[in-house]
């Protein structure tokens, strides 16, 4: 993985200077900094400039993520003698949820969005995000496009050999491939499918993706799980104008949404049967949650668990921070771990094993010892991970309100597919203000486009094709 950030720093400095000198960009930066725009339902606003990253670093990181995932999907065989019940029990997945996740025994599709910090030496993995329900895909298309619509930015991108990758194109390719097993040769009908009753709360995240996929000539609909029913020879979607056959159900819900609804498992069974009978494709199945659980990172990180060969271990060591699993099992090893965690408070962060949006995350360096001890005690009663602190290298961002470059901490959301790197977005907060950089739980979070530099595909007119 490339550790040279000189190119990134030079491009960022040049763009900040351009913002100072260009009246158009200075105004644009001021409007973005003030939170004027709310595109695609992003309520917290946008960073005043794009984020830049080395293409070779993005690609190398994505390849390491794929290696980590290949090892992760083999953990039940390597550490639990192939016993999925033991594996689930170890991760704190109860029997009811485990049955839901194991309903379809299909090959894993390695698609998702890995969140990572760049610490100045390389990208460090925070979570793998292995699921079709990851958000922000459309931002990899729309946000760079908006920046490039400004002539000054387009000229800057061409001068510096910048490019960007659209994860929307990868999703389109993957769903077309999946649909080919149902209806070869035709354009698919796909449904971005939320959990029952969930569109009112989460629909803002899927309507923009529908628009992006329709730009690529895919007949894309948005619905809830209970809008689908099994017909005689096809899976059908109820619409205001009647029922239409569906080729691909893109899962935008999780197992907790299914289990929280009294008829959730029955609704899931409709889609599972359609998949098994070759009437539609369920993309991706809930079984991805067996391997996107953050507890998997603890199994990979713990040197006492020999889950990887030398080459795999090298990839794990490059991107996975120190991670351990807190469980209710107790025992001397868990007691020893808790004592270590108490002593290393300022170096550690606690995260629920399952969840998203930064909910339940507590950073030791943001609380006192009393609260940390209480959080540790509570976390050990359920299922959570404790992870070593990764300090992101601050990004200088020109702020026209202060006429200075202000430091921001950035989380890179790096999309991957079986072909490797497929696009990215960035989320940011002012440096040192919060360990949680997420639109759902931190209103100070800003979204940003990512442009890559380096590689033969540079140039605004030449996005990476995967």
Major sheet: size, sense and barrel closure? 7 strands, mixed
Please give the CATH architecture of the largest domain: 3-Layer(aba) Sandwich
Global outline: globular
Q: Strand percentage, roughly? A: 15-25%
Please count the beta strands (DSSP E, at least 2 residues each).
Answer: 18
The number of helical elements comes to 18
* Mean pLDDT value: 91
Top-tier CATH class of the largest domain: Alpha Beta
Pick out the low-confidence regions: 457-466
Supply the number of structural domains. Answer: 2
CATH topology of the largest domain: Rossmann fold
According to CATH, the homologous superfamily of the largest domain is: Glutathione synthase, substrate-binding domain superfamily, eukaryotic
Radius of gyration: 22 Å
Q: Structural class, from secondary structure content? A: alpha+beta
Distance between the termini: 19 Å
Amount of helix: 25-40%
Q: What would you say this structure looks like, in words?
A:
The structure is a single chain. This protein has about 475 residues and is of the alpha+beta class. It has two domains: about 5-290 and about 395-455, Glutathione synthase, substrate-binding domain superfamily, eukaryotic (Rossmann fold, 3-Layer(aba) Sandwich); about 320-390, 2-Layer Sandwich (Dna Ligase, domain 1), CATH 3.30.1490.20. Strands 1, 2, 3, 15, 16, 17 and 18 form a seven-stranded mixed beta sheet that branches. Strands 5-4-9-10 form a four-stranded parallel beta sheet. Strands 11-14-12-13 form a four-stranded antiparallel beta sheet. About 35% of the residues lie in helices and about 20% in strands. A hairpin with a 2-residue loop joins strand 16 (about 405-415) and strand 17.
């Amino acid at each position: 993985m490339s550790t040279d950030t000189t190119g990134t720093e030079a491009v960022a400095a040049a763009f900040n200077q351009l913002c100072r000198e260009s009246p158009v960009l200075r105004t644009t930066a001021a409007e973005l900094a003030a939170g004027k725009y709310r595109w695609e339902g992003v309520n917290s606003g946008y960073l005043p400039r794009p984020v830049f990253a080395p293409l070779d670093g993005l690609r190398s990181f994505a390849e390491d993520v794929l290696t980590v995932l290949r090892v992760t999907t083999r953990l039940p065989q390597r550490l639990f003698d192939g016993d999925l019940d033991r594996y689930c029990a170890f991760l704190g997945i109860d029997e009811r949820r485990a049955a839901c996740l194991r309903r379809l025994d299909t090959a894993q599709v390695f698609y998702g969005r890995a969140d990572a910090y760049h610490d100045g030496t390389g990208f460090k993995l925070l979570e793998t995000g292995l699921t079709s329900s990851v958000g922000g895909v459309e931002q990899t298309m729309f946000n760079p496009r908006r920046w490039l619509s400004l002539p000054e930015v387009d000229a800057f991108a061409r001068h510096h050999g910048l490019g960007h990758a659209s994860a929307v194109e990868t999703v389109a390719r993957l769903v077309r491939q999946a649909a080919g097993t149902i209806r070869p040769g035709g354009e698919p009908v796909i449904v971005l499918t939320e959990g029952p009753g969930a569109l009112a709360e989460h629909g803002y995240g899927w309507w923009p993706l529908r628009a992006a996929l329709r730009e690529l000539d895919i007949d894309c609909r948005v619905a809830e799980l209970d809008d689908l029913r099994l017909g005689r020879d096809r899976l059908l979607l109820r619409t205001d104008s009647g029922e239409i056959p569906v080729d691909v159900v893109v899962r935008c819900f999780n197992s907790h949404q299914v289990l929280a609804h009294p008829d959730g498992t029955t609704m899931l069974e409709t889609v599972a049967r359609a998949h098994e009978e070759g009437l539609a494709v369920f993309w991706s199945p809930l079984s991805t949650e067996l391997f996107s659980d953050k507890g998997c990172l603890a199994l990979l990180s713990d040197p006492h668990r020999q889950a990887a060969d030398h080459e795999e271990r090298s990839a794990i060591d490059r991107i996975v921070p120190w991670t351990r699993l807190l469980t209710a099992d107790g025992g001397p090893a868990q007691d020893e771990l808790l004592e270590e965690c108490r002593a290393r408070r300022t170096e550690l962060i606690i995260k629920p094993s399952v969840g998203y949006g930064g909910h339940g995350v507590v950073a030791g360096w943001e609380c006192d010892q009393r609260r940390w001890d209480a959080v540790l005690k509570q976390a050990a009663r359920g299922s959570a991970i404790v992870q070593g602190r990764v300090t992101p290298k601050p990004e200088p961002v020109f702020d026209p309100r202060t006429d200075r470059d202000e430091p921001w901490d950035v989380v890179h959301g790096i999309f991957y597919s079986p072909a490797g790197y497929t696009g990215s977005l960035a989320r940011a907060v002012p440096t040192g203000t919060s360990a949680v950089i997420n639109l759902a739980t931190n209103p100070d979070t800003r979204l940003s486009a990512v442009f890559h530099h380096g590689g033969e595909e540079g140039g605004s007119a030449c996005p990476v094709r995967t």
